[in-house]
Amino acid sequence: MIKEIRLLLCCLIGFSALNAQVRLAGEIGIQSANVIEKNSIPGWDSTTKNLYSSKSGLRLGILVEIPIAHNLYFQPGLNYNSKGRNYTKNYDSSGTALTDSVYAKSKLQLGYMEMPLYITYKLPLSANHKNSFFIGAGPYFSFILNASMNYQNLTRLNDTTVSYTKSSEDLLIGNAVNKYKTFDFGINAKAGFEFGNVMLTGFYSRGLSNFFTASYNGTFHHQVFGATLGIWIARTSPAVAVPVVKKDTDKDGIPDEQDMCPLQPGTAKYSGCPVPDADHDGIDDEHDSCKTIAGVEKYNGCPVPDTDGDGIDDEHDSCKTVAGVAKYHGCPIPDRDNDGVNDEEDKCPDTPGTKENNGCPVIKQEIKEQVNYVAHNILFKTASDKLTPDSYIAIDELVALLNKHPELHLTIDGFTDNTGTVTFNQTLSQKRADAVKNVLIQKGIDEKRLTSAGHGQEQPIADNSTEAGRAANRRVELKLSQEKL
Q1: For residue 148, what is the enclosing H or E element?
Q2: pTM of the model
């Protein structure tokens, strides 16, 4: 872009040497810039769009006027433009907690070097043609110079104190997601009055290219309204032949008058400039196999490869040909028991099982039935957590089963009938569950394999209004699992 700007200026200066009517003006003005954003985000138009507003900015530049027909002129220019938009969200903190946000503000600031190209028609307002009304339009091309976001936040800390914070962030420039594009183009229109060497101009510009690549589906175009004050500061005179000494400042063998980069050694192929580096990766385009994508010298200017396409480049990927995740250095999540359920979802990562059973083996039906039989034969003395003598026979059978299957874990749930108070029954049910657990521990079962819980009278399985129903509700239930409890 810098080369094109220099080329334009050189062409304008060269043309002015041949035409005495070419004029040069300086312009300064203010403008109101905004961003026209369209997207498919739900609720954008009703809840978010109205939080954005225009921001004021500066316009400073030069304008060249070249006659092309009666009252018709070509007016190329070069100016600096401050564009962007404001965001303001005010919070209604009335009636809420003393610590609350009052407002949040941000300002998107984008600086561009812009090249407008106007075709302008002038309508004379005086006989000497020094005063006129003019109107013009044409395209513009711009190059981004800087991009930043300024933030302001006001927070109420208590009923007497507020906290104000202010910060800024430099934004990324380029063609990737969440970056502001290097180049932009659009259309300009202007109208105004010329009084002698003074111009008063109102203008409008609208971007045609999408200047920002968002992470969601949306388009972003600049829109600017403004006014400038211009002063015609020079009119060219016929050129006078002057002996020219060919100067070569950068000593590259190309005279400065032909050198588009007089301060940098270059080549004739690129008009005295160095070989271009389009992606700015330090590898010139003639040696860069990926001219538009930044890369490294090791891969001839291309990025480090990602063979399996998992977002982790091969130099940091321990499984280059199999897609994986960063947590495991580019490899898939492990499956130690090879049962098709990865270790992060497998509750029995070292024992093959089924997906339906969370990676654990399915417990055989005959084992479940044996445990249910044991549970029905564990009995307690009335209103007590003391086991009946016959219960130890059933518990010994349960101990034998757990020793035979060390992979199994057991949950012991205690229940009561509704005799007595709710609090008493809750305590009693917990004591009964703990009593069974303690006997199992005494008989050598690892405590880590056991869990006990009391549920009181809240989950009856029979009618508490009969003796038989109450007897059925005074029970212990045993549940088997293979994952750690």
Answers
A1: strand 131-156
A2: 0.46
